[in-house]
Design brief:
It is found in: Periplasm. By secondary structure, this protein is of the alpha+beta class. The chain is built from 12 helices and 27 strands. The strands form 5 sheets. Strands 21, 22, 23, 24, 25, 26 and 27 form a 7-stranded antiparallel beta sheet that branches.
């Protein structure tokens, strides 16, 4: 009896605290749902080739008159389409949704919760961020405000309103699971630091708003991770910081221009961090600098590690395009990088994305001597290949022994080594000098050219027995 009384006392004392800690979403839903819309995109079905068939029949005089009239008078193909969600951001009819919701549409219809319906004009779309801006001819519409996605914290409550599976104005809630998620597109572009949540998102939610507890839009629901076709607890939203930037550009210009630096980058792993004398793995390692790029004009070099841009920390390489892409072309920013173990701060004038051109590097093999070290055999490049590939020398890997230090690090046959540690490699002799300076147990960085693309890897020199 005493134990039961104690447990009951604990339950009574915890219940008010537990109830108080759970958010009440009703106010947000009542205030914000009138500004959430359903977006219906219609596209004409492709025209059939029935007229071509008719002409063939006429030439052969095989088509009956009744069938001729049928083909001539048949109705145009019925429209096809899909639907998604969106939200109004101004009283004069501007609406945000996803690019993929309206992509290819011949007609876009917007439906409000009070059953009003409007034909929408597509002001502009941006495939890279998967955002689109629409406008309807209406005044005094209900609208929502964009909040500050940067203030979001992992574990914070958020909710979504949309039309999953066509079930209009459905509300789901959950928490922020992670921030700054990188989800490269099919073209390998990575300009959106997605907000990951466990809010239930399904087809039809695309383009709908993600709200914080203040009723502000902190994201646009865009993607789900699923193997079944429905929500399994992983959903991704475009942060409002990106949305604000893209919408302003679409509203003013109908198109989007992003900041561009002109470098190929990669992550820094533990071995590379040791080889570059970093206290821990961090930053974006510059593998290659584009000719004539803003990076080259600013003096950025291959092997530099960018760790900060205008006060924003670059922890992983994916952070760099997120930050640079939101900077207006022509702006000058402060950039901190690590070069040969020392921190340097430089100024960089950011270019426009359209100027980006990736250099093409080609390599072939000649017949000079062979150097064997760390389980690999290397030889010089011939001068003709250097000229064609715009290389300034290097040695090509001819063979890599299985289970060797080079193999375990990821060196493969055909790779061209252009840097070993802090020494540029132009010829086999440079490689010999660089090898003389390493000791067992050292971590050494290698810059390679592999199938035309630059790459840094770290090799751990085996300990002597």
């Amino acid at each position: 009896m005493l134990l039961r009384a104690i447990l009951c006392s604990l339950c009574l004392s915890l219940s008010p605290l537990t109830m108080a800690s759970l958010p009440d979403f009703t106010g947000i839903v009542e205030d914000s749902s009138p500004a959430v819309v359903k977006v219906v995109a219609e596209a004409r079905a492709p025209a059939s080739n029935s007229s071509d068939q008719m002409e063939q029949f006429e030439e052969l005089d095989q088509l009956p008159e009744a069938l001729k009239r049928f083909f001539q008078n048949r109705n145009p193909p019925a429209p096809r389409g899909g639907s998604g969600s969106g939200f109004i951001i101004s009283a004069d009819g501007y609406i945000v949704t996803n690019h993929h919701v309206v992509d290819g549409a011949d007609r876009v219809i917007v439906r409000l919760s009070d059953r009003r319906e409007y034909d929408a004009v597509v002001v502009g779309t941006d495939q890279r961020s998967d955002l689109a801006l629409l406008r309807v001819d209406a005044k005094k519409l209900p609208y929502v405000k964009l909040g500050k996605s940067g203030d979001l914290k992992v574990g914070q409550w958020v909710l979504a309103i949309g039309s999953p599976f066509g079930l209009d104005y459905s509300v789901t809630a959950g928490i922020v699971s992670a921030k700054g998620r990188s989800l490269p597109t099919e073209r390998g572009e990575n300009y959106v630091p997605f907000i990951q949540t466990d809010v239930a998102i399904n087809p039809g939610n695309s383009g709908g708003p993600l709200f914080n507890l203040d009723g502000e839009v902190v994201g646009v629901n865009s993607q789900i991770f699923t193997r079944s076709g429905g929500s399994i607890g992983l959903s991704f939203a475009i942060p409002s910081k990106v949305v604000r930037n893209i919408v302003e550009q679409l509203r003013e210009n109908g198109a989007v221009v992003r900041g561009w630096l002109g470098v190929s980058i990669q992550n820094v792993d533990r071995t590379l961090a040791e080889s570059f004398d970093l206290d821990r793995p961090r930053g974006a390692l510059v593998a290659q600098v584009g000719e004539g790029s803003p990076a080259e004009r600013a003096g950025i070099q291959s092997g530099d590690i960018i760790v900060e841009v205008d006060g924003e920390s670059i922890e992983v390489s994916a952070d760099l395009p997120h930050v640079i892409g939101l900077i207006s072309p022509g702006s000058t920013v402060s950039m901190t990088l690590i070069r040969e173990g020392d921190a340097e701060t430089i100024s960089v004038e950011i270019g426009a994305l359209e100027a980006d051109q990736t250099p093409r590097v080609v390599a072939s093999v000649s017949e000079p001597g062979v150097l064997k070290a760390l389980g690999m055999s290397v030889r010089d490049l011939d001068r003709e290949s250097e000229a064609e590939g715009e290389l300034r020398g290097g040695v090509v890997v001819m063979e890599v022994a299985i289970n060797s230090a080079a193999y375990e690090a990821g060196v493969r046959e055909g790779d061209v080594i252009t840097r070993f540690g802090r020494k540029a490699i132009s010829r086999l002799a440079d490689m010999e000098v660089a090898l003389d300076g390493i000791e067992s147990g050292d971590s050494v960085s290698l810059r390679l050219i592999r199938q035309g693309a630059p790459l840094f890897i770290g090799i751990k020199v085996p300990e002597n027995d």
